[in-house]
Design goal:
Number of helices: 63
Structural class: mainly alpha
Largest sheet: 8 strands, mixed
Distance between the termini: 64 Å
EC number: 2.1.1.34
Helix content: 55-70%
Shape: globular
Radius of gyration: 41 Å
Organism: Poecilia formosa
Strand order of the largest sheet: 3-6-5-4-9-7-10-8
Strand content: under 5%
Number of strands: 10
Enzyme class: transferase
GO molecular function, one term: tRNA (guanine(18)-2'-O)-methyltransferase activity
Family: Belongs to the class IV-like SAM-binding methyltransferase superfamily. RNA methyltransferase TrmH family.
Length: about 1400
């Protein structure tokens, strides 16, 4: 900044004309210094606007001076000066001048930071680029770095839309397909371009794209990178790609941009670009960048990165070990898991390149033969041997080996087996036997060989565990898996020694600090063995029969030992291992599928006695003596000389103690469900024991870390129903504290969702939902308060309400309801929580176009990739869509049986609640707009009512009819009107005896009904559907329909007339079919024919013709059939999409089918039987009521001319009654043909409007156009305008009507002039105004909209010398009006005077 300031101050001295012989001055010329131009380019892209202006000033000054002096940069530059950024030669003076003029225009325009101003100038960038491409003299006159400054400036814009515009322009830059330009731009792409791509908002959906579409910019990015890399010189591609990957790990990238950049990499054409350093860079991206992202997006990005690595890795530069070390960083639960397309692609890729990998030098291998190649199978065999090769045990305690080694080897084993089966088709068992023989040998000796090193046994168990875990395919793909079956059969032969070894180790041998994590390994292996044996009939030994009782008895003996005054490591570790062992046994037994043997049951009885012992405290409160017991931090023997053990004690003992406490609750939770407290205490003490247990659970919520409380919540789930009547206060305390804990986890996605589901199962279980306010007033009030908080939390965290709704819907109406009486009892609880159902029907927050909405859109896009993205199979499906609550409750309602009294009662209560909500919004004084929250709530309510209508009883519908008809008279948005009209049609079809109430709607005062009568006329358009259901008097009903339609045909409102003519056309066609009673319609024939002829005559009357054609082709009156198209697809997807509702209100049918409890058959069709309606696109005719303040129909593009001087003028002033031309002649004034249009002025103040009015009147404008003439009635306007409105013709043209108004004026010969700074705007002092000029003024902030800019004949700008580059719209208008007056009226007057003289 200081350098630019100094250069600007000294510019008069440094940049001045030089005489041809002044060599000294030439040497001081900054134009010859590359550093000067580097400073200028840095200044042009500086964050400070003043610095940018200074740099641009210096550039313009240099260009002007170079042309003036005839400067020749070639002859003035020494050979060692380096690359010249600014070049000038006299022979190319004209194109150089034009280039720099365009360049400065572009840079100046970018200062505006407004898209509508900048977009027209973008073609000048293309001109600059083309000039640079076409230049072929020497090394080129235009250095590409100047173009980079333009993009850099756009990328740094504060306006995100302008930033996006710059990115899109660069992505479509065709010149980058030329190798020279691609190489010149490469570092810019690596640096600035990658930096701007990290902006999440760039990847929002473009207008016209649907939810689930790939963002437009992401598609362009894929095409751009392919063409860019193809254009780069082949020797540069690897280096550039490596730098791009490094950019991904150089800073934290948000999930969305990282995902689409990785996807773009995966589309690059296969070529050997990445060496070992490239794989290391990709590994760094996996390690650092993705740790905090959403799981699904993180998994998808991993999939794309792996695909990129497979297509871009130079296998001749990496070894097999390098590749498997790289694959180790892809998580099996997120991306790389067996059974997916990605896994199969990897197997094929490894097979194809198996003999192409770089040879690795093994330890002790002194041969250096580059032709020696290592197969995958040989690699795996060597790695298994090396993995199990461990040094002899020293006898000292040691940490558990790093599990990543086992993870890497297990994945390599599984890939090798799948490769061999795919390639050779051999016996899987034989392949596994040859690969796993060292491991199987170790496992067979693990119990008998007491001299086996602990490290070797640990590593063998780690590998066993990872093989069983990684070999399992994701849920939904558990078909015949020959590999997994062979693995299990192989390991089943070695279950006995492994089990005996684990039992021996758990029962007394684990006493060191490092043994705590070792115990976790043993218990994990034991779990896998139990699951494996339970699914196999060939299990040689029943683990449950021998292992479980032994573990429980030994663990209880350790826990019952008296506490030591000074805790030692061995004692505390033994207790931690014992409690973990009992918890593992309880979890395995709770999973089911394992029969309970007598000795196991006896051991569990002893465990139950241990936990359920009552202990009375000094406060006379009972508690369970052996629950919430904590471990004491031990002291190390020998003064803590073992630094590693000391470090473990300091860092991990808190987690060990927390796990010890959690394991107690896992045990107690299982025991209270399976054994029961009553078996361990006297019957009289059961209530007291239960209360003590609940008190302990409340205490545990405060003791445990938030991520370990799930067992406590599960325990409360069992206990609360038993205590709610006797100890309600304690139950409320437990529920409230649990909810506060869950709320505190809302920022921790990993722990929040499991805790939330656990809380829902506990607090909203059916036994608590059944409680009425009279039975448990405090608890029910607390639950209502929690539900209110829940709704509030759901506004900021997607998916929260969906968790509750899924649980409640499955509770009230399970897929397997059991007995009828039991189902009725469970369902009855819904009436206590009708507010949950009601809120779910209208739920769906109005989302901003922010990052949260963008992430949801991208998640849907990833989900719709299906099997193409392995993350969809690897990541557990967890729907967190904001539409989930509605899809759940709508599916729930569609499953209700109308013959069931409880179901019928629920539907009726819900209908009344929804009608009440709709009525409250309709009667509120707040006017609601399209897609506002009020509009959406009304639309959702009527959608639900329409869904329930066929299930409602006739008696209840009779009480509902009047409310439906009254809703038709309210001011409604188009989508709501369609639903109300559809509901009226269905009611009249099913219950035609209500037709008289319908006819009475046409008898209301027309001044009160206004255009809402169109709602009822729309129903008559579908009268052909209603008439066949009328039992008798069909002709009479048709005659009555014609009577009310004909009355509306003569309504003063054009919109009403248009609807009436359409209804008349439809109904009259029905009347003509009634040939047996011609007399009934004979008198009407001439009138109807005249009306229809008038409608057809509209074909030649401009705008009215267009609207007549549009309304006839509208979906509601054309393709739509109220009976045939009645389905959930029409109500919730097709209607919203055709009635201009935001796309986040569209619920496609697949979202219903995706629900786990979606029934195979519905009482209401899910999809349309006919596809015609779903194939339509939203039209431009929108049926909508108009408010009293907006009496102009949106289709009516007609200007209103008034003569304000005739309103309230005394008879003593006859000159005010004259038209403007007569007044001007009488008063000696002259009027030009300048028409000033000010309809675009946003929020017009009285000062601006009155000032414009005075200016136009003073300078003789032919008229002033305003957006509304209501301004004239304002007292402040009248005081400031000093009666100018009485002497000036005023017109009212609303902004929506401007397009048509300008077209009309163009046809009348007006030149449309805009006051705007554009790329081709003319200076005010140079422009000659035509006589018939229309001056269009923009609004204060945005100027003239882009759609109107295209209609301008010319843009005029006012020369400015200041910094802020902004004038008030009134001042700008006054300057142009004066210039027009100077050129025409004053010049004309002087000519007349000279002729008279």
């Amino acid at each position: 900044e200081r350098t630019l300031l100094c250069l600007t101050v000294l510019s008069d001295h440094l940049l001045k004309s030089h005489t041809p012989g002044s060599a000294g001055c030439r040497e001081a010329d900054p134009r010859l210094r590359p550093q000067f131009w580097i400073i200028c380019q840095d200044g042009l892209t500086h964050r400070d606007s003043v610095s940018r202006k200074r740099a641009l000033y210096l550039l313009k000054r240099c260009a002007a001076l170079s042309e003036e002096d005839g400067f020749d940069s070639r002859s003035s530059t020494s050979e060692d000066a380096g690359e010249t950024l600014f070049k000038w030669t006299p022979s190319k003076s004209k194109p150089l001048r034009e280039f720099w003029e365009d360049y400065t225009l572009v840079m100046e325009t970018l200062e505006e930071n407004q898209v509508h101003v900048v977009r027209p100038v973008l073609n000048r960038i293309d001109t600059l680029i083309q000039a640079t491409v076409n230049d072929s003299e020497g090394s080129g006159l235009f250095h590409p770095s100047w173009l980079l400054c333009v993009y850099q400036r756009m990328f740094h814009s504060e306006n995100k839309s302008l930033m996006r515009e710059g990115v899109c322009h660069l992505l479509q830059l065709q010149v980058l397909q030329q190798p020279a330009f691609a190489a010149a731009f490469s570092q810019f792409v690596v640096g600035s371009f990658m930096n701007v791509l990290s902006e999440t908002s760039l990847f929002c959906r473009s207008p016209g794209q649907s939810v689930g579409d790939c963002p437009e910019l992401a598609v362009k990015l894929q095409v751009f990178l392919v063409s860019f890399f193809t254009s780069l010189p082949s020797e540069d591609r690897g280096c550039v790609l490596f730098q791009l990957i490094q950019q991904l790990s150089s800073k934290h990238w948000c999930a969305v941009p990282l995902l689409f950049v990785c996807q773009a990499f995966s589309h690059l054409p296969p070529s050997p670009l990445l060496k070992i350093s490239g794989l290391s860079a990709l590994r760094e991206v996996l390690r650092c960048t993705m740790i905090t992202h959403q799981v699904l997006l993180r998994g998808a990005a991993q999939c794309f990165l792996l695909k990129s690595a497979l297509s871009l890795t130079d296998v001749s530069e990496v070894t097999v070990d390098d590749m498997f070390s790289f694959l180790m960083h892809f998580r099996a639960d997120e991306s790389l898991c067996r059974g997916t397309e990605l896994w199969n692609e990897l197997c094929i890729w490894l097979s194809e390149h198996e003999c192409s990998f770089k040879s690795r030098i093994l330890e002790g291998d002194f041969t250096d033969d580059p032709t020696r190649k290592e197969t995958i199978r040989a690699y795996v065999q060597q790695e298994v041997l090396a993995y199990l090769r461990v040094p002899a045990s020293t006898g000292e305690s040691e940490r558990l080996p790093d599990s990543r080694e086992a993870d890497k080897l297990a994945r390599a084993l599984l890939l090798c087996v799948d490769m061999e089966r795919r390639r050779l088709g051999g016996e899987t068992g034989e392949i596994l036997g040859s690969l796993l023989s060292p491991l199987l040998d170790t496992l067979s000796r693990v119990y008998a060989n007491i001299y086996l090193p602990v490290r070797k046994s640990d590593k063998s168990l780690q590998l066993l565990l990872r093989l069983l875990q990684l070999g399992t395919k994701p849920c939904g793909q558990q078909k015949e898996d020959e590999v997994m079956f062979a693995i299990e059969q192989t390991f089943l032969k070695h279950v006995n020694p492994v089990q005996d070894f684990i039992l021996r180790r758990l029962c007394g041998e684990l006493q060191e600090l490092f043994d705590v994590e070792r115990a976790e390994l043993y218990l994990s292996v034991l779990r896998q063995l139990v699951v494996m044996c339970s699914s196999s009939s060939r299990c040689p030994k029943n683990i449950q029969q021998f292992a479980f009782p032994k573990l429980i008895k030994y663990s209880l003996s350790v826990l019952l030992e008296p506490a030591q005054q000074v805790p030692f490591v061995a004692n505390q570790v033994s207790k931690a291992v014992s409690m973990a062992s009992m918890a593992a046994v309880c979890e395995l037994l709770q999973q089911g599928g394992i029969s309970m043997r007598a000795d196991t049951a006896s051991a569990l009885k002893s465990m139950n006695d241990y936990f359920c012992t009552l202990k009375n405290s000094s406060q006379c409160q009972s508690s369970l003596g052996n629950i919430n017991k904590s471990l004491m931090k031990p002291q190390l023997l020998g003064g803590g000389s073992d630094l590693e053990a000391q470090s473990l004690l300091q860092q991990d003992w808190g987690r060990i103690a927390a796990n010890f406490l959690r394991d107690q609750w896992i045990c107690l939770n299982f025991l209270i469900r399976t054994v029961g407290i009553s078996t361990s205490v006297e019957l009289s003490q059961v209530p007291e024991t239960l209360g003590a247990a609940l008190s302990c659970s409340v205490e545990a919520l405060a003791l445990l870390p938030s991520d370990l409380v799930l067992p406590v919540l599960t325990f409360m789930n069992t206990l609360l129903p038993q205590l709610v009547h006797d100890q309600e206060d304690l139950c409320v305390q437990a529920v409230t504290l649990s909810w506060e804990l869950v709320q505190g986890l809302s920022t921790n996605a990993h722990d929040f969702w499991p805790a939330l589901k656990g809380f829902v199962s506990m607090a909203f279980q059916h036994k608590l939902l059944q409680l009425t306010h009279g039975q448990a007033p405090i608890l029910t009030t607390a639950l209502k308060k929690i539900f209110t908080d829940w709704l509030e939390l759901s506004q900021s965290k997607s998916g929260v309400f969906g968790v509750l709704l899924q649980h409640c819907c499955q509770t009230w109406l399970p897929n397997d309801p059991g007995s009828r009486d039991q189902a009725a009892v469970v369902f009855s609880s819904v009436f206590n929580h009708l507010d949950i159902v009601t809120e779910a029907c209208v739920y769906g927050p109005v989302l901003r176009r922010d990052q949260r909405r963008l992430v949801l859109d991208v998640q849907i896009y990833v989900e719709q990739l299906g099997a193409k993205c392995a993350a969809n199979a690897a990541v557990a499906s967890d729907i967190r869509d904001d539409q989930l609550p509605r899809t759940c409750v709508l599916t729930f309602l569609s499953r209700l049986d109308p013959s069931d009294q409880q179901h019928q009662r629920l539907m009726e209560d819900l209908v009344l609640e929804l009608m009440r909500k709709d009525n409250l919004i309709s009667k509120s004084k707040v006017r609601y707009y399209g897609n506002s929250l009020q509009h959406r709530v009304k639309n959702r309510a009527w959608q639900t009512l329409l869904l329930l209508l066929p299930k409602l009883k006739e008696e209840f519908v009779a009480t509902l009819v009047n409310h439906v008809f009254e809703a038709g008279f309210c001011s409604n948005q188009a989508s709501v009107k369609y639903l109300i009209e559809w509901m009226m049609i269905l009611i009249l079809v099913k219950y035609p005896h209500h037709i008289d109430k319908f006819w009475s709607c046409f008898n209301f005062d027309h001044e009160k009904t206004k255009t809402s009568i169109c709602t009822f006329l729309s129903v008559l358009v579908h009268f052909s559907v209603i008439v066949p259901h009328v039992e008798d008097k069909k002709v009479g009903q048709l005659r009555r329909a014609l009577d009310v339609i004909l009355q509306s045909c003569f309504n003063h409102n054009f919109s009403v007339r248009l609807y009436a003519l359409l209804a008349l056309k439809k109904v009259w066609s029905l009347a003509e079919e009634e040939e047996e009673d011609d007399e009934a319609f004979k008198g009407l024939s001439s009138v109807v024919t005249a009306c229809l002829n008038q409608a057809e005559a509209m074909q030649s009357t401009g705008n009215a013709s267009k609207n007549w054609l549009r309304i006839q082709g509208h979906f509601f009156f054309g393709a739509f059939h109220p009976i045939r198209d009645y389905s959930m697809e029409t109500i919730f997807h097709i209607f919203p999409s055709l009635s201009e509702l935001a796309d986040d209100e569209w619920i496609p049918p697949w979202k219903f089918e995706k629900l786990s409890f979606f029934p195979e058959s519905l009482l209401i069709p899910l999809r349309n039987s006919a596809p015609e309606l779903g194939q339509l696109q939203a039209g431009d005719w929108v049926q909508q009521d108009q408010s009293e303040q907006d009496k102009e129909e949106r289709w009516s593009e007609v200007q209103k001319k008034i003569t304000p001087w005739r309103s309230g003028v005394n008879d003593q002033e006859p000159e005010l009654k004259l038209v403007p031309a007569q007044r001007a002649a009488r008063l000696g004034k002259q009027h030009g043909t300048l028409l000033v249009v000010a309809s675009l002025i946003d929020k017009p103040t009285n000062f601006v409007v009155s000032g414009l009015c005075r200016t136009c009147e003073i300078f003789g404008a032919s008229g002033l156009v305003l957006d509304s003439l209501h301004h004239l009635n304002d007292k402040h306007f009248q005081s400031l305008s000093v009666s100018a409105e009485l002497w000036l013709p005023l017109l009212e043209v609303k902004p929506v009507e401007l397009t048509h108004f300008l077209q009309v004026k163009k046809s009348e010969g007006y030149c449309i002039v805009g006051v705007e700074q554009t790329a081709n705007s003319q200076k005010l002092q140079d422009f000659k105004f035509p006589e018939k000029t229309l001056l269009l003024l923009g609004n204060e902030r945005e100027g003239i909209p882009a759609n109107l800019l295209q209609m301008l004949d010319v843009c005029v700008e006012i020369p400015q010398q200041g910094i802020i580059r902004s004038l008030n719209v009134h001042v700008s208008a006054a300057l142009l009006i004066w210039e027009y007056t100077r050129q025409h009226l004053i010049a004309g007057s002087q000519e007349v005077y000279s002729q008279c003289g």
